[in-house]
Write a structure and sequence with these properties.
- This protein has 463 residues and is mainly α.
- It contains 20 helices and 4 strands.
- Strands 1-2 form a two-stranded antiparallel ribbon. Strands 3-4 form a two-stranded antiparallel sheet.
- Helix 2 runs antiparallel to helix 14, helix 5 runs antiparallel to helix 14 and helix 7 runs antiparallel to helix 18.
- The radius of gyration is 21 Å and the shape is globular.
- The chain starts with 21 loop residues before the first helix and ends in a 6-residue tail after the last helix.
């Protein structure tokens, strides 16, 4: 049963089965929502999915995933960046009219969404089957395919490769006449958030709200710079029903592209696995400090993948963006030492409510891109640093040429490919699967896994 933490405990923090008091749970849940909101909505915008459906599906999917994992694995599920390239390709091919129109004219592309939904549902099937297989044959089998050198390196790639997603809204995407103001607000937000994270740590509830406080501070700073507009809030309806869609099961195009979408799970499985290892490290450290038994959620890799699949079943059925457990929310949990699943369920309920609330969605959407960018620089960077923490915690021998080869290849193909290649795609075109090329993050995962399997099959004499 969930337990309420003694507020006078000398060690500040919440473990997965702890339940904060109501007021704290609301504020902590809203901070978790705020942390996932920018990236989740950004993916919806980039892929022409309905923002309301994406928010609602994110919240419901998170709650279902937490229940599937029996509330043992604290994760929040938002939209995955890994699917953007392949979704854009699918929509360009089969929903050309709506997808190529300017976003202001057509922000939502239902024809394309229905086709992609079939692929998202197939992703869910793959994840659940792999998870059940791992639960059947044990974690050791996965460790051979996805050892810490692979999962840790992929965490670094996923964090650092998102640099453009952070620096873009911080100012790189801004028009020249406002870029100076945008960069300034972004870095004021960044510095404020860092200072709040460091100097408020251990000071009760305030010490657990640095991201929320940093966002509010940046928001207030942005107002006199003219970066906040309330026009859409005034014209928005109080209640707006999300635009749900049903998968296009009868469409030949949907089935032809389903595997192309579903294969992106190759990138999200290492990502999800890395997140579980990271969270296990931080949760067990806090448990030790509080004098409680370790949770060892790193032993629940199979169950975690089943929970991932449960989330994708929800978002795929409703018409939300393909999901993944969020590294930025994991970063927030690590920063605030709050791993309560009750808080994450609260965040899911908030996301579902905002999915129906036109006024609230419009108000939250007034958050300036500069503030989002400042927060993202910190959070995405922490994802990358957690990959380093994973390698250290698992005592990976970085003098071993095998580990160096796997890690180096993943880093250069993933980070370098995302930054240096056109559209972040390796030019290996595979009909129906990757017609425009293989996304760098997916390619890095595939190559890293294959190189590691060579060493698994052809062992050195010393092993």
């Amino acid at each position: 049963m969930p337990t309420e933490v003694n507020p006078r405990s000398k060690v500040i923090g919440y473990l997965p089965d702890d339940t904060p008091r109501f007021g704290a749970m609301l504020s902590l849940g809203f901070q978790q929502f705020l942390t996932m909101f920018p990236a989740t909505v950004a993916v919806a915008i980039l892929t022409r999915f309905d923002v309301g459906v994406t928010l609602l599906a994110s919240g419901l999917g998170t709650i279902i995933a937490l229940l599937v994992s029996k509330r043992k694995i604290p994760m929040y599920y938002g939209s995955s960046f890994s699917y953007i390239a392949v979704i854009q390709t699918v929509m360009t091919l089969y929903a050309r009219d709506c997808f190529q129109a300017p976003y202001a004219e057509m922000p939502y592309c239902p024809d394309g969404v229905r086709i992609v939904q079939v692929g998202i549902l197939l992703t869910a099937v793959f994840e659940i089957l792999i998870g059940l297989l791992i639960m059947r044959i044990g974690k050791a089998a996965l460790d051979k395919v996805l050892p810490p050198i692979v999962t840790g390196s992929m965490a670094m790639v996923i964090g650092i490769a998102l640099a453009n997603a952070a620096l873009g809204p911080a100012g790189n995407w801004a028009a020249p006449e406002v870029a100076g103001k945008t960069w300034l607000v972004a870095f004021i937000t960044l510095v404020a958030t860092i200072l709040l994270s460091v100097y408020l740590r251990g000071r009760g509830l305030l010490g657990m709200l640095p991201i929320l406080l940093g966002a509010v501070f940046g928001y207030l700073v942005a107002i006199p710079f003219g970066l906040v507009s309330f026009d859409n809030v005034i014209t928005a309806s109080w209640i707006a029903v999300p635009k749900f869609t049903f998968p296009a099961f009868s469409s030949p195009e949907a089935w032809g592209m389903a595997l192309s979408v579903a294969l992106i799970f190759i990138a999200t499985v290492p990502e999800s696995t890395a997140h579980v290892y990271q969270m296990s490290l931080y949760i067990d450290t806090l448990a030790e400090e509080m004098g409680r038994k370790p949770y060892e959620i790193k032993k629940l890799i199979g169950l975690n993948l089943v929970a991932d699949g449960a989330d994708d079943l929800v978002v795929g059925a409703l018409g939300g963006c393909a999901g993944t457990n969020y590294g930025e929310n994991n970063s927030l949990m690590a920063i605030t030492r709050n791993y309560s699943t009750s808080v994450l369920i609260t965040a899911g309920v908030i996301a579902m409510a905002l999915g129906f609330s036109g006024k609230l969605v419009a108000l939250v959407n007034t958050m300036p891109q500069a503030v989002v960018g400042g927060l993202s620089i910190y959070l995405f960077g922490v994802i990358g640093m957690q990959g380093v923490a994973l390698l250290l915690s698992e005592k990976v021998d970085m003098f071993d040429p095998k580990n160096l080869a796997v890690g180096a290849t993943i880093l250069i193909c993933g980070i370098g490919g995302n930054l240096a290649l056109t559209n972040g795609l390796f030019p290996f075109k595979i009909p129906y699967l990757f017609p425009n090329g293989i996304p760098a993050i997916v390619f890095a995962a595939i190559v890293g896994i294959l190189i590691n399997l060579v060493f698994v099959i052809f062992k050195r004499k010393s092993e």
